[in-house]
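Hi R.,

Here's the chain you asked about this morning:
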Amino acid sequence: MSKHKGSNKEMADNTRQKFIDKAHDRFITEGYVATSTNDIVRDAEMARGALYHHFKNKEELFAAVVADKIKSMSALMDAGLKKRVCCGVDDPQEDFLSTLDLIVDLFKDPAYRRIIVIESLVALPHAIRRQTMQDYYRPICLNFLERINMTKSAPESVINAFIIGLIGFLAESVRSFEYTMSEEESTAQAESIKAALRLILIPFITQYRK
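And here is the predicted structure, written out as tokens:
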């Protein structure tokens, strides 16, 4: 009996993921507004009722697509940090800057940029979008700040402003990739963003680092 239940759960999980994958592709190529749930059901070759069994509406499905992309980003960043550890690198500041570099590079990919930065503006209410980004970036920032004891030396209001400002800077900066016309332009723009992050962050970190 337990095996049968497990199989049913696996089938349900696979169906849910299939809807997420097909919605992801549609949202990238057609955009959130132009994509209908009928399009996604047809692409997935599933019954319409199956979609609404897992997601109550298109907004909830989009939020699941965002969560899936963020999960993918997190896995890549974890792999990057593990690689630095294996190479014997132990520098919290460089770990943090390298993580931000990876985020910038990932957003060169339209699959990340259009879902998380572009389409989310029309797909999700501001409060949900803001909370989603806070839930993702805040632990990354706090982990770094704790490693350099900055959470003890900087006021909480300053730390909160730092995290909110960093999220805003990243979101607006990577949006600029939409206007690059070639891989060379995108690469040059990414390096400019990384340099700007260092100009902003290193003096700030130095001021509070203990």
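One quick note: The radius of gyration is 20 Å.

Cheers,
M.
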